[in-house]
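pasting for the record
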Amino acid sequence: MHDEQRLEAGTGTPLERLLASPSEVLERIPDAVVAAAPDGRIVFVNRLAEELFGYSRDELVGSSVERLWPVRERERYRRNIALNFATEHPLRFASEARGLRRDGTEFEGEMSWGVIETTEGPLLLAVGRDISKRRAAEARVRGVAALGQRALAGTDPADLTAEAVRLLRATLPLAGVAIGLAGGAQISSDSIGPGATLELPLATGDVLVVAPTRALDDEEMSHLRAVAHTLSIALARLRAEDRIRHESVHDPLTGLANRILLQEQLQLALARSEREGTQTAVLFVDLDAFKQINDVYGHAIGDRVLTAVGARMRTAVRPSDTVARVGGDEFVVVCEAVDETAALALSKRLLAAISRPIELGGTTHTVSASIGVALGYCDPEMLLQMADSAGYRAKTGGRSRVELHR
C-alpha cells in the first residue's frame, strides 16, 4: 500500500499522521515559532508566538518580521537573515536575541534559527523562548553570591550595605529601598512614600524597607531575603566593630576617654595650637581622699561615685573638650584654644561640680579634687607632667584647690 493510501486509511504511524500537517507540528512545539519569507514577510506564527509578542496571528501574518525586533537591532538582524538565505547550505544555529513586544517592552530570547525548504520556496524559521526571567534570576544569584563573598572578605560594612542597596535597586522592581537603623538613622536616599511596603527585620533592631512596584514572586522574595540576611550580618559586624573600637579607647567604668584616646586628642590639639598660634590647656584632676570611700563603703559604691564624678565633669566642660580617666581616681581634661584665665575658670567649674553631694543608697557622699593646670603647645608628655606636678602642689597645699604650672 502506498503511503498516501495508508494515511487515508488511518493505518499510518502516529508520527506519519502528525507529519501530514506540518503546521500542527509547529503549533505543538513548546516554544514560540515564527516563519518568514526572504522578503521579511511573516508567513506563520504559532500560539506561543502570539503570547510572547502580544500580537494576534492575523496582525502578524503578512507584516514585516522587523516589527518584532528592537529598532537598534534591526540592521544587524536584517543582514543575518540575508546571509542565511544567500548561503547554499543554510546554517542552523542557536543564539541569543532581543525581541520587542507589542507594548514596547523588550525581552531577551534564546532562539534557534535556520532556513528550511518548502513547496513555496525557502523560509526562515525561528524557534525560541523568553529567557529574561531566567537571566534576571541568574543575575540575582550572582549578585547575592558576590555580596556574600565580599562580606566574608571583610569589606567595610558601610560599603557592603550601600552595595546591597544598589543590588536590590538593580535586580528587583522597587520604587525605593531604605534601611532604618536602630538609632533612627537611615541608609539610602530613596524617599518611600505611603503605599504598600515590605519590611524585613535585620540585626540589632535594624529594618530593611522596600517598596515594590508590583507583587514579588517566590524567587524574587527569596532573593530579597538573601540580601536581607547578608545585610543583617554586615550590620551586626558593624555594630561589633564600633563597640570594639569604642571599648578600645574608652574607660569601661565611666565611659570617658582612656589614655590611648587622651594621647590622640592631645596630640591633635597641640598640633592645631601650634598651627594657629593658640594654647592648649591640660587639667590634671586628682580626687581627694577617695580611698576612704572604697575602704568604708566598698568598691562597688566607689565605682558608682567615680561614674557620677565623670558624668559631672563632662557637663562642666565645653563640648569640644576631652575628659579622660587615667587612673583609679585621676582624670585629665584637654581644652583647646584657651588662655590662663579661661583655664582657671574651667578648673573652678570642675571643682564646684565635683564637690556637690552624691546620693547613693540613702547615703550622701562628698568628694573634692585637687587640680593642676598647664598651658602650652609643647610635647604632650611634657605638658601632662607639668599638669601632674601642679596637681601635686595643689594637693599638698591644702586640697580642693587649683594650682597653675608656671
